[in-house]
Specification:
It is built from no helices and eleven strands. By secondary structure, the protein is an all-beta fold.
């Protein structure tokens, strides 16, 4: 199983960005799948995910601003990020449970 994440970049505070994670050799609509982020010196944070039952879950820091979605035909999971703040700056990685990871994509929120 391979995951390929993309969509990171530089965005101004208050802006929006959408990350994509394409899954090869697995299925985004079977089992849990989600997004993590990490900044240097901090623990990796689970940001948004689909549970194995299909429910969507969000970390407290992104509730109301981020939306996770998935397309079973494209076998892709997305993270729509609105109202971005400098504190959202991190390397974002996707994960297909139990232990399949994509490479990170850097999101920088700065003016």
């Amino acid at each position: 199983v391979q995951l390929q994440a993309s969509g990171g970049g530089l965005v101004q505070p208050g802006g929006s960005l959408t990350l994509s994670c394409v899954v090869f050799g697995g299925f985004v609509d079977r089992g849990a799948v989600g997004w993590y982020r990490q900044t240097p010196g901090k623990q990796r944070e689970l940001v948004a995910w689909f549970t194995s039952g299909g429910s969507t879950m969000y970390g407290d820091s992104v509730k109301g601003r981020f939306t996770i979605s998935r397309d079973s035909i494209k076998n892709t999971v997305y993270l729509q990020m609105n109202g971005l703040e400098p504190e959202d700056t991190a390397v974002y990685s996707c994960r297909l449970w139990p232990n399949n990871w994509g490479q990170g994509t850097l999101v920088t929120v700065s003016s």
